[in-house]
From TrEMBL:
DED domain: residues covered: 3-81
Domain Death: 98-149
Gene3D superfamilies for this protein: Death Domain, Fas
SMART domains linked: DED (SM00031)
Name of the protein in question: FADD protein
One GO BP annotation of this record: regulation of apoptotic process
Keywords carried by this UniProt record: Apoptosis
Pfam family, one: Death
Organism: Ceyx cyanopectus (Indigo-banded kingfisher)
Domain of life: Eukaryota
Length: 149
């Protein structure tokens, strides 16, 4: 299950009836009266807020405000920890499986990178393209040539 939905489910389980009523009241400007009357759990409320895009995995400010208004600092802390963990574990923050070995190779081949690329059977045309695309950046030339390989 999605960690975000798991977090919301945990929040839902820890809410009292009084806190749920407060959350419903605080959400009344976002959700219609009929829908709010049908809400019986925090999970149902969170689901509606997600559907209406009032809360999202990458935009939790409204949810944080709701939890602060009902004085549930423990849940606010959990939410902030979740956001920090998501930022750390975001795919764009994780290096590609090939990036690290390529970086090590670039660090060690120096100015003779063309000789290595010819040994790896890259054509002179490909090498010239890389060199012309990055005329003054040796490291970028190496990197692009390795990627082309």
């Amino acid at each position: 299950m999605d960690p975000f939905l798991t977090l919301l489910h945990g929040f839902s389980q820890s809410l009292s009836d009084e806190e749920l009523s407060s959350l419903k009241f605080l959400s009344s400007d976002k959700i219609g009266k009929r829908k709010l009357e049908a809400v019986q759990s925090g999970w149902e409320l969170f689901t509606i807020l997600i559907e209406q895009q009032d809360i999202a995995k990458d935009d939790l400010s409204f949810l944080e405000g709701l939890l602060e208004n009902i004085k549930r600092q423990d849940l606010v802390s959990q939410l902030k920890r979740f956001v920090e963990e998501e930022e750390i574990n975001a795919p764009e923050n994780q290096p590609d499986a090939h990036e690290r070995p390529i970086a090590v190779i670039c660090d060690n081949i120096g100015r003779h990178w063309k000789t290595l690329m010819r040994q790896l059977e890259l054509s002179d045309v490909q090498l010239d393209r890389v060199e012309n695309a990055h005329p003054r950046d040796l490291r970028e030339q190496q990197l692009q040539a390795l990627r082309a390989w």
